[in-house]
């Protein structure tokens, strides 16, 4: 989050403060939800599951935990239902526009209408499936697959859920340090080419979504979780899931309207594009 400007601290962990400039004046207005609604894609394992785990401890939270398929072992996710929060486990394949549309209808129906507010939309699902391909060897299929899941997925998800995004809603696109052009330029040998290209595109999408949703007071950011021990990050990663997601939730809860369109690390510091 930005270190400049005023930023009221939430008095409970779930209060969302987003400061909005009213009219042409400079007065900052807080808007908060005491029973926040979270939507998280790719929630069945890794960082998505950790989001649900941490959020499940608060009974005032409503969580839509989206998973690519319901026909799999979802016991880890199911077990979190007993923690206190209301958790809806729904299918959403972010590589399929039909699946995302069906998911959105279910969310609207459970919330009680297409205008009911989603406080946090966390576009977490992502793939890094062909990490050894370089710019000289990558295949069109791999590139389009990564763009489809990592970029088109979050694009369509925001489009179909837009009616639920109101003043103070936050959209988070889970990016990567590998999506930073500035970071890649510092490396002697770049890697994960298709993934990096897709995350750089996701970063650009974030800037456009932030601009397009500015009039509604919706904050859109992208966050790099760091190198985290998950199936994707591998056992050699430096961060534990608890630390990455704990930091990210703190960052997301402290966002201001002026933070929209920014790129953060999981500790809330701003990253170079
Ligand atoms: N771990 C890291 O070090 C790291 C670093 C930078 C960025 N990230 C980003 O953080 C996010 C989460 O990564 P992770 O480390 O948790 O990875 P992970 O352990 O591989 O988990 C990825 C999650 O995304 C889901 N997913 C993939 N394709 C999907 C699709 N088409 N539809 C719905 N869900 C889909 C997976 O579901 P399935 O179980 O169905 O495959 C799984 O739940 C990703 O966007 C990743 O790029 C991670």
List keywords for this structure.
Rossmann fold; seven-stranded parallel β-sheet; two-stranded antiparallel ribbon; single chain; alpha/beta; binds NADP nicotinamide-adenine-dinucleotide phosphate; 33% helix; globular; 273 residues; disordered N terminus
Summarize the structure.
33% of the residues lie in helices and 14% in strands. With 273 residues, the chain is α/β, with parallel strands linked by helices. The radius of gyration is 18 Å and the shape is globular.
Tell me what the structure shows.
The chain is α/β, with parallel strands linked by helices and 273 residues long. It has one domain: NAD(P)-binding Rossmann-like Domain (Rossmann fold). Helix content is 33%, strand content 14%. The protein is built from 7 helices and 9 strands, in the order βββαβαβαβαβααβαβ. A 7-stranded parallel beta sheet has the order 5-4-3-6-7-8-9, with helices on both faces. A two-stranded antiparallel sheet has the order 1-2. β8, α7 and β9 form a beta-alpha-beta unit. α1 packs across α7, α3 runs parallel beside α4 and α4 packs parallel to α6. The longest helix is centred in the middle third of the chain and has 22 residues. The two termini are 15 Å apart. The N terminus is likely disordered. Bound molecules: NADP nicotinamide-adenine-dinucleotide phosphate. The site of NADP nicotinamide-adenine-dinucleotide phosphate has 28 residues, from α1.
């Amino acid at each position: 989050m930005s270190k400049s400007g005023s930023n009221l601290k939430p008095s409970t962990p779930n209060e969302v403060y987003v400061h909005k400039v009213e009219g042409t004046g400079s007065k900052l207005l807080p808007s908060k939800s005491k029973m926040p609604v979270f939507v998280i894609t790719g929630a069945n394992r890794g960082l998505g599951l950790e989001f649900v785990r941490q959020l499940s401890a608060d009974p005032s939270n409503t969580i839509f935990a989206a998973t690519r398929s319901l026909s799999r072992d979802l016991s880890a996710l199911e077990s979190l239902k007993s923690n206190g929060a209301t958790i809806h486990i729904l299918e959403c394949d972010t590589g399929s526009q039909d699946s995302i549309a069906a998911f959105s209808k279910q969310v609207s129906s459970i919330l009680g209408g297409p205008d009911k507010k989603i406080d946090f939309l966390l576009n977490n699902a992502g793939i890094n499936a062909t990490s050894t391909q370089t710019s000289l060897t990558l295949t069109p299929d791999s590139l389009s697959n990564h763009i489809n899941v990592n970029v088109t997925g979050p694009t369509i998800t925001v489009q179909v859920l837009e009616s639920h995004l109101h003043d103070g809603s936050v959209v988070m696109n889970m990016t990567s340090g590998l999506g930073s052009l500035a970071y890649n330029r510092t490396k002697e040998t770049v890697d994960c080419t298709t993934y990096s290209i897709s995350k750089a595109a996701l970063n650009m999408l974030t800037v456009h979504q932030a601009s397009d949703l500015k009039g509604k007071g919706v904050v859109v950011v992208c966050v790099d979780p760091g190198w985290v021990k998950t199936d994707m990050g591998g056992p050699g990663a430096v961060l534990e899931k608890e630390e990455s997601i704990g930091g990210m939730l703190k960052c997301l809860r402290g966002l201001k309207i002026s933070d929209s369109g920014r790129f953060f690390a999981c500790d809330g510091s701003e990253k170079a594009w």
